[in-house]
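Notebook B, p. 112. Complex prediction, attempt 2.
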Amino acid sequence: MTTIIRGGTVVNADRAFRADVLCYGDKIVAVGTNLDAPASATVIDAGGQYVMPGGIDPHTHMNLPFMGTVTADDFFTGTAAGLAGGTTTIIDFVIPSPQQSLLEAYRTWRGWAQKAAGDYSFHVAITWWADSVHEEMGTLVRNHGVNSFKHFMAYKNAIMADDETLVKSFRRSLELGAIPTVHAENGELVYQLQQDLLKQGLTGPSSHPLSRPPAVEAEAANRAIAIANVLNTPLYIVHVSCKESLDAITRARAGGQRVYGEALAGHLIIDDSVYQNPDFDFAAGHVMSPPFRGKEHQTALWHGLQGGNLHTTATDHCTFCAEQKAAGRNDFSKIPNGCGGVEDRMAVIWDAGVNSGRLTPSEFVRVTSANAAQIFNIYPRKGVIAVGSDADIVVWDPEASRTISAKTQFAKGGFNVFEGRTVRGIPSATLAAGKLAFHKGELMAKEGAGRHVDRPAFTPVSAR
Ligand SMILES: NC(=O)NCCC(=O)O
Ligand SMILES: [Zn+2]
Ligand SMILES: [Zn+2]
């Protein structure tokens, strides 16, 4: 199948230029002016529009069993929603239960992901430690295209990794050429603060941010950075939500450490006033960890993205419907943690980032795809419009707008944290592996069309 995108401005992380883009099969085969195309080619008119690499969301949870329930979006509905919003690749998480074989969990998640409509890859969480975990990390890197391991420093009595696990897993990651990543929150502190609040009868969603203040996040970020420094490993910190964690990253980077930070679209846009809403469904719909923060933290996160101390934008897409959130009606600590966003990330970041002048279009590409592709070692297959790259392309109409609503979204869960926000700058077309998956409001996502993306190790893998 041949597709030609004519007359647009190609935007890559390094520059923007006028060019047609010719795709054949699942690859880009030519980028240039006045390209010839066979008469049978599908023609997409991109006049007056930008032609950018499809978004990469490096942090999603589709089909995730979590806090006694399973997310509303599975790999089909979640990736299809992503395609509608211009995101063509997700990196999701395999989360083994403590004592579970990593490979067994990996195979389970690969099975669930067979439905995906867009491309996907997996970070694997290290939730416990044993010699078998050490072994299986090697197998995952060598044979299964995994080059990143996730550590939850929160969620005590569930998937929290203790310091022994962090140290052993970071060291093993280095040996294998994989990058350790962390959810930075001190899980013990969260647990104790939750108990204190519940004892005082403060059982509603407004207690959620009180149990997870910025200092709790910053302690864990500083600890993970210190461990990475001693062991000389790189580190990627997911969902950096507060100034204090960003300061820790900025300090570490200024001191020569390779530490990367991820900002969530939600944390950039939404503030903590949502937890004061008396409507339980509304407040609980915003319960995620780390929580939404005060506006001063949002300003700091934007500065982090602009200044290069935060590198990627993600969503942590993890949707639960109102009935699922109601599990915590009498105890906020039981509200399933998670919010959506995979469908909206590109548009809200364009609107709040590019339209405001905070980011140039090239910087937008850097933080929505190119940096993630480089950090997780799938560049230039992904994250750039270039000959030989995957034909994952979003045609972006900077003048068109849409008002975000759960009523019109493709994602499941019946709730949207960006509800009512009108964004200017939206996809007019999304091409995934050379196939038109979204065009002028119509979603043509196909169940099972997504492919697993192997991510090679960063250095030669040891034979151990
Ligand atoms: N973020 C969140 O609240 N839920 C998903 C799991 C995680 O990333 O911590
Ligand atoms: Zn997390
Ligand atoms: Zn997450």
